[in-house]
């Protein structure tokens, strides 16, 4: 079977490459979505458009081929006890080891299913909206549990988040979650996978991109894992990967043939992942500056920063101010960078610290509010997270329809398309829908 699988992957014709997992079927229009599309196509193209703002959480994490265990604290990464966002986008790299059987063989979805289960539990267990709670209520939202350990908290007032899109290509995975009341407003979800790895087309490196439209604004999130290497000139391979991803990623035009097909055609674009850009300094100099926490001096030689400022493929993109330590490469279960914790033969395998894990964006109407890293020691990378406020265009004439269809009485209607309870999505290993 392997020759056939390899041939299909080389020809970029993998079965199911445009399929994805979701909590509901996107090929069936909701009542609100149908009304939106019909009115928009017939009478409201020139209608007055208002603007709404939504909070979007984005994170990226190279898990180093280590499967999640009971000790993984997704609530810390998602900061669900401190804030609640409207949409969560989580990107992972190397969720499975990049060995031949995983790169060339059938997709192993057990690990991605487990990650989705952990994400679902964290989002639906302990989120609350800071804007809707008074200070006293906010303080009381989190209650201690477990032998009085203040590090263990359980937040009440849960909100129901649903999986909009989840897609895996070898070790790259992206998972998008939204509040339940936003589901009818999110239209035309789609995915596109591009392999840039072995032979320039296999999925050990590359990207998984997702597209959807919220109200009148298109979003594109690109989860990438670019070429590795810390030698001089290796950054050109990463730039080449970006060029391939931009040129080869393609989405459906949509029923009205008016949806953006290419990444750069969308209104709001966010590129996240292990982009693997390094620091163009001698290793000894890099380690000394890291020890002194001289981030500004290091960033002057950061390859991605230079590409954003004066390069070709990513010129004009934006990134928040980096005020955290390099996220790569750590010794297992340690706060020490690789090369500092080994002696003898292993000491020769040094990897200079670098900000490999990044979140950058393009498009007007996106404002980054936070940019930081988390401290999970699951892998040799630290997770990176960003919080955005996105402006979204809304047709004014559709506001009355939204108020009608999002009212409590419509929320209680059980349709033939409604899925089973959320925990069945993963816990029983029965994905709600594979689209």
How does this structure look, described?
This protein is an alpha+beta fold. The protein is 23% helix and 25% strand. The protein has 12 helices and 15 strands. A 6-stranded mixed sheet has the order 6-7-3-2-14-13, with helices on one face. The protein is globular and about 60 Å long. This is Inositol polyphosphate-related phosphatase domain-containing protein. Residues 52-396 form the Inositol polyphosphate-related phosphatase domain. GO terms for molecular function: inositol-polyphosphate 5-phosphatase activity; phosphatidylinositol-3,4,5-trisphosphate 5-phosphatase activity; phosphatidylinositol-4,5-bisphosphate 5-phosphatase activity. Pfam families: Exo_endo_phos2.
Order of helices and strands: HEHEHEHHHEEEEEEEHEHHHEEEHHE
Distance between the termini: 25 Å
Q: How many domains, in number, for the residues?
A: 1
- Class per helix and strand makeup: alpha+beta
The average pLDDT value, as a whole number, equals 81
- Describe the global form: globular
Largest sheet: spatial strand order: 6-7-3-2-14-13
Poorly predicted regions = 127-154, 413-431
Largest sheet: 6 strands, mixed
Strand content: 25-35%
CATH superfamily, by name, is: Endonuclease/exonuclease/phosphatase
CATH A-level architecture: 4-Layer Sandwich
CATH level 1 name: Alpha Beta
The radius of gyration over CA amounts to 22 Å
Portion in helices: 10-25%
> How many beta-strand segments?
15
By DSSP (H or I, 4+ residues per run), the number of helices equals 12
Pfam family, one: Exo_endo_phos2
Organism: Sphenostylis stenocarpa
Keywords: Hydrolase
InterPro entries: Endo/exonu/phosph_ase_sf, IP5P_plant, IPPc
């Amino acid at each position: 079977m392997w020759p056939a699988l390899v041939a299909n992957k080389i020809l970029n014709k993998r079965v199911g490459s445009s399929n994805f997992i979701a909590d509901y079927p996107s090929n069936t229009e909701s009542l609100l979505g149908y009304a939106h599309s019909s009115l928009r196509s017939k009478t409201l193209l020139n209608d007055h458009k208002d603007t709404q703002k939504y909070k979007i959480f984005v994170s990226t994490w190279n898990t180093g081929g280590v499967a999640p265990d009971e000790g993984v604290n997704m609530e810390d990464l998602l900061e669900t006890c401190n804030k609640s966002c409207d949409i969560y986008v989580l990107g992972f790299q190397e969720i499975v080891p990049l060995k031949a059987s995983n790169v060339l063989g059938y997709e192993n979805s057990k690990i991605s299913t487990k990650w989705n289960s952990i994400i679902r539990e964290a989002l639906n267990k302990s989120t609350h909206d800071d804007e809707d709670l008074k200070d006293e209520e906010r303080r009381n939202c989190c209650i201690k549990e477990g032998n009085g350990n203040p590090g263990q908290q359980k937040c009440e007032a849960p909100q129901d988040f649903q999986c909009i899109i989840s897609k895996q290509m070898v070790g790259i995975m992206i998972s998008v979650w939204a509040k339940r009341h936003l589901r009818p407003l999110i239209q035309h979800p789609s995915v596109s996978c591009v392999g840039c790895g072995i032979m320039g087309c296999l999925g050990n490196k590359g990207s998984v991109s997702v597209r959807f439209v919220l109200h009148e604004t298109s979003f594109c999130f690109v989860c990438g894992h670019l070429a590795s290497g810390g030698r001089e000139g290796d950054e050109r391979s990463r730039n080449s990967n970006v060029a391939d991803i931009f040129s080869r990623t393609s989405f459906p035009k949509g029923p009205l043939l008016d949806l953006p097909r290419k990444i750069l055609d969308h209104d709001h674009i966010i590129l996240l992942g292990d982009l693997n850009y390094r620091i163009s300094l001698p290793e000894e100099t890099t380690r000394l500056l890291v020890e002194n926490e001289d981030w500004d001096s290091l960033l002057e030689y950061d390859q991605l920063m230079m590409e954003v400022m004066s390069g070709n493929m990513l010129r004009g993109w934006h990134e928040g101010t980096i005020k955290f330590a390099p996220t790569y490469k750590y010794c297992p279960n340690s706060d020490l960078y690789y090369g500092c914790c080994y002696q003898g033969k292993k000491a020769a395998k040094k990897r200079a610290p670098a900000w490999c894990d990044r979140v950058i964006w393009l498009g007007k109407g996106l404002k980054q509010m936070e940019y930081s890293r988390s401290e999970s020691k699951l892998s040799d990378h630290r997770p990176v997270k960003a919080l955005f406020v996105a402006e979204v265009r809304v047709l004014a004439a559709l506001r009355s329809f939204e108020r009608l269809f999002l009212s409590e009485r419509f929320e209680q209607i059980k349709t033939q398309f409604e899925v089973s309870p959320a925990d069945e999505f993963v816990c029983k290993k029965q994905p709600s829908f594979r689209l």
